[in-house]
Amino acid sequence: MAYSNSPLASYTRLTSHRNSPRNHAIDRITIHCMAGQMTGKACADYFATTSRQVSSNYCVGYDGSIALSVEEKNRSWCSSSPSNDHRAITIEVATDSTYPYKCTDAAYKALLDLVTDICRRNGIKKLNYTGDLNGNMTKHKWFAATACPGEYLESKFTAIQNEVNRRLAGDVTAKGNASNGLYRVQVGAYLKKANAAAMETQVKAAGFPAFIRQEGIMYKVQTGAYREKANADAQAKKLQAAGYRAIVKAEDPDVAAAEN
Ligand SMILES: [Zn+2]
């Protein structure tokens, strides 16, 4: 399977603390606690600069920001277990530094989006938290003398499993109707096709995908269509950071069907 990285990461700073490539397909998720309320960026910066031999694939900040520290094709140094980390995506989540190592609602929400995205891209059809190594959600404390992931996140493992599985099951339903529930990222709408074409060229030159869709009398320049709103929002954020007035539009399934 070809490896990819999450489009939800808004910051990338890769660390040399890793093995490249991983030696096992991705079939586990290991959620950790940072024991510190950092942003995703601050955590990835730390992994890139510390002399401690530590890292994770992703860092989820207290503000819900997500950073990529070790690409998914590589093994992070996170769980005190090479065999676990070769097959797991490891995620450090910002938490309090003391018992019960609580995370913010924003971090929890971002974690759910990230785990869902990881499962989708890597063909993990279901999370299965069994409380032992027979499942695909593992804990750092099973491999080393540590409290990680901490009581708070541990208490959420079943809820994380259930919510992610609910979303993954929704994909199957949505696939029955290929146009159902897409979120389109749009950077402009024009009456003149030439103006849309100029914007399309500009957006492509900036390194984004772009294409023109005709809707009624308007020519709309779009840069992607996503089934998950979080992915569309992430793409819109990147475009906004590059100076574009990107908006996310939920597509009416009926309209989509009419266009087919
Ligand atoms: Zn840990």
Task: Give a structural overview.
The chain is an alpha/beta fold and 260 residues long. The protein folds into 2 domains: 11-175, Lysozyme-like; 183-259, Sporulation related repeat (Alpha-Beta Plaits), CATH 3.30.70.1070. Helix content is 36%, strand content 20%. It has helices spanning 40-49, 82-87, 105-122, 150-175, 193-205, 229-241, 253-259, and strands at residues 11-12, 18-19, 28-33, 58-60, 66-68, 75-76, 88-93, 137-138, 183-190, 211-215, 218-226, 247-250. The strands form 3 sheets. Strands 1-5-4-7-3-8 form a 6-stranded mixed beta sheet, sandwiched between helices. The protein has a 4-stranded antiparallel beta sheet with strand order 10-11-9-12. Strands 2-6 form a two-stranded antiparallel sheet. A hairpin with a 2-residue loop joins strand 10 (211-215) and strand 11 (218-226). The model is unreliable at 253-260 (pLDDT under 50). It binds zinc ion.
Note the main attributes of this structure.
alpha/beta; 4-stranded antiparallel beta sheet; 6-stranded mixed beta sheet; disordered C terminus; 260 residues; binds zinc ion; Alpha-Beta Plaits; Lysozyme-like
